[in-house]
Amino acid sequence: MGDKSDVLQGTLDLMVLKTLESMGPLHGYGIARRIEQVSGDALVLNQGTIYPALLRLEQRGWIKSAWGTSDSNRRAKFYTLSHIGRRQIEEETENWERIAATMSRFLAPSN
Amino acid sequence: MDQIRVLLSRFGAVFGKQKLDDELDEELRTHIAFAMEENLKQGMTEQQARTAALREFGGMTQTKESYRVLRGLPAFETLANDLRFGLRQLIKSPDFALTAILTLALGIGATTAIFSVVKAVLLAPLPYKDSGRIVAVWTANPVRGGQPLSSTAGDFAIWKRRSGVFEDLAPSYDNEMTLSGQGSPQLLIGYAVSANYLRILGVQPQLGRLYTDQEDSPQGPKVALLSDHLWRTTFHSNPNIVDKSITLDGVAYTVLGVMPPGFDYPTTVEIWTPSAMAASAYDDFKEPYVRILGRLRPGVTLAEAERTLNDVEAQVAAAHPQTDSGNRVVVVPLRQQLDGDIRKPLLILMGAVGLVLLIACANTAGLALARNAERQKEIAVRLALGATRRRLLGQFATESLLLAMIGGAGGVLLALVGNRFLLRLFPTDVANLNIPKVTQIPLDRGVFLFALGVTVLTAFLFGIVPVLKAMRTEAGAAMQYSTRGSTTTRRSNRSRSAVVVSEVALSLMLLSGAGLVVTSFQKVLNADLGFQPDHVLSLELFLPIDRYPSTDPAKRRQFVEAVEKRLNALPGVRSAGTTNFLPLSGFWGTSSFLLRGQAAPKNGQEPEADNRMVTPGYLRTMGIPVVRGRNFTDGDRAGGLQVAMINETMAKQFFAGKDPVGEELNLGSADKPDWWQIVGVTGDVKAFGQDQPTHADIYRPFDQLPFPLVTFTLRTETDPASMVKSAEQAVWSVDPNLPVFKAIPMDMLARQTLAVRRASSALFSAFAVLALVLACIGIYGVMAYSVAQRRQEIGVRMALGARRGDVLRLMMGLGLRLTLSGVVIGLVGAFALTRLMTSLLFEVNSMNPPIFSIAAMVLVGVAMAAAYFPSRRAASIEPMQALRTE
After folding, report:
1. A74 and B35 in contact by Cβ < 8 A?
2. Cβ-defined contact of B27 to A70 (cutoff 8 Å)
3. Which residues in chain A have Cβ-Cβ distances shorter than 8 Å to B62?
4. How far is B56 from chain A (nearest CA, A)?
């Protein structure tokens, strides 16, 4: 996974984890909508890209999935944060903050 | 950790793909449904809601595709696809598949079976500490035939002190002992070894302890170590054997310990006792009886050690010219020492079976080439449709591997069967061959890994040519020419020709080798042993020194005379006789001698001859002719005229042109002569095997020189094996406490001697036949394919007036040309390679034009037969039909 979308992917992964942390079990559409809402629609997401991200997280064992029923009585696949995932959020957050801090230092007007 | 989880999850997803796909579909459908629900709430129409939902989702197909790539193992799935496809391909052409698989199974099976023997015998780790540094040290002297033999204690002591190349050096010597008080008396092959000898080997007893340096002295206690075999059989695995007293040669010995199973250096030894060398023994430079074992210092090479020892020995020879001049010190690694006479035959067989494997590869390559040519169109279509060459290469590699793996599995099965047969070919109980004891040939992980390696190598060898050819296919070109298919390209002809030529060449090499080995074996079989081995039973005995001391020769005489009398009286016995060293028994001894009027040679290098003490009945019983003079009689007694017979070899060597009868031999020394008059000349006896040179022999009457080693021989009217019991009874009726070391019919001993030769001859022949069959199949296949491909060309030729005979000649000519090129290359190879086989040959020159020509003729005949049938088919082509098809 050494291509250019790395940062974006990592970002998306963290967004998914954070969403599940704050919202509890959620299906794919819900996660996608929540991310769009939180980012204040600043992030225009191809909602489909959420699914490979979910698969990736599940393969790593950070989230789990199970079929369930939605509020509107629709059969849907719900994702939950696993123990490993919960621990991982901290690490990923630190990572992200470090990158963000570094980036902002680069982007700050030179003095 | 994450990576492993990911891999496992991906691997799991390879299976049940359909279900996972369905789930994904459902999940994505739900997603759209949710989105539409929300859009509808915002007041969109059904159509608008769906369009908006799909737009926000992005590409549905791309999502699914990237999801799938992430989910499974694409490379693995490709492989599975290729395997499935390959299997289908094989099933589609069962003739090709079966022939190829059988060919490979035979090649891989034979190679694996022989390798299992090589591994068990030559490669198995020795059960000794750091065995790479353990060496045996021998003395070779031209006077004693230049063979590496035992050394003197004096030489040993100086080498140990001065050479500086050894961490430790230890003496040992033969020490046969009679065990009594445990059922019937038993003669044990014993070995007297110094305490450090066992430390050099680094063995520990399974029970009890080893003796110490203090205990290993002339004044030390009488102690002994038992072999595992002796402990299990004679002592019934008695766990309390340690510290028990046993009787050896009439003396009480304390059992110190039991050596571990598998400890058998030197082989067949049953009991070890301290060497108990007196300090004065190390001043002796005359008696070579010490067998030396050493451990090299780390970093000292074999060559270095040998050079240093020979430098030291040169100084010793300067100081002791009488005994040591001409001595050459030989250092032999323990491994080589143990492998003995079987190493070279095994390596040669391994080489031969390697050739069989190569032929199998060539054969399969030929078949694959022919088949792939039929698939040119398929390849071209795939290329045209955008398959990458890499992808095609992968598929071909998979198909080759699949074929090889099935063949390899069959080969391992064959090896399992053949393995048991091989063990019987290498008997362990051969008196005069030095071969390691191999009680089982395990087919273990190493052997399986080898088989796997060979299989992969095979796949590469037979797969590479067809693949390379296929990869050169141009999409457009291939489609064109295979649809028209009028003539073959020169290139495809060339690779198929190469296959036939190499098969013929390799087969010829094997066939020539087999011819040499089999001819040698026939010669050995027909070689005159110099005695009549059929209907002769032998019983080997040692007279224990305590009860038959050399100071009382009369007792030995009486014993032998009494036993011979009883043996002669047994029903079914024609005659009986006695000797000391039985031919083919592996035991012998020599005496030096001088002729009358001959001055003592310089440096004490008197000529030597094997000494043989016999009773008058011995020559008659064995069927050894007296060619001049007379045999011994009952009148040649102790106290009378000392008489001797010599063999023809000795007569030729030392009495050229003279009649030796009446001449005298001095078997004492120049100062103290001991004269024996030659009364007869006997025929030569091959005492060391049919294929070994005859030594000079001096026979003397047992009565005049009673030797404590006694072998009774009896010529029987019926099967000698059935006489063992009554013969043993005859011995025990004279002395009930005397063990019979070995009772065996002479023809069995003669057969055993040929064990390794018989095995290598049988295996070599089998390999040659296999090679012929494989080559035959290969040539047939290539020719048949060639005919099929040239159908139209032949049709055109015939339409233009060629007759059937012309076509037959054309095709046969092609076959003959290829075969003859193979024969030329094969002959060059045979001349180059058979030189390596000289150790398997006997009275047969390795450069052997007659044998090579016969092999070449056989091969040409077989090849022509294989080419004939396809050629006849070519000749029977109906021109019109051939031109119309396609």
Report:
1. no
2. no
3. 48
4. 6
**Domain range for residue A11?**
6-107
ipTM for the complex? 0.85
Cβ pair A72:B37 closer than 8 A = yes
Distance from CA of B77 to the nearest CA of A (A): 18
Q: How many domains does chain A have?
A: 1
How far is B406 from chain A, CA to nearest CA, in Å? 36
Q: According to DSSP H, which parts of B712-803 are helical? A: 724-734, 746-753, 755-789, 791-799
A30 contacts B34? CB cut-off 8 A: yes
Residue for token pair 């989230």: A63
The model scores a pTM over 0.80: no
Run of H or E residues at A109: none
Per the CB < 8 Å rule, is B27 touching A77?
Answer: yes
Query: What's A34's domain CATH number?
Result: 1.10.10.10
> Is A41 within a domain?
yes
For B437, the token pair is 């004891």
Strands B664-666 and B675-682: antiparallel
Better pLDDT: B793 or B193: B193
B792 vs B157, residue with greater confidence: B157
% of chain B with per-residue pLDDT over 70: 94
Task: Answer whether A76's CB lies under 8 Å from A67's CB.
Answer: yes
Residue spans of alpha helices (H) in B42-141: 46-57, 60-71, 74-92, 94-118
ω into residue B266 within 30 of 0, thus cis?
A: yes
Instruction: Give B156's contacts (C-beta < 8 A, 6+ positions apart).
Output: B169, B171, B282, B290, B292
Identify whether A23 is part of a domain.
yes
What span, in angstroms and rounded, lies between the C-alpha atoms of B241 and B283? 38
Structure tokens at B395: 């598929």
pLDDT digits (tens, 9 = 90+) for B412-435: 999 888 877 777 666 666 665 666
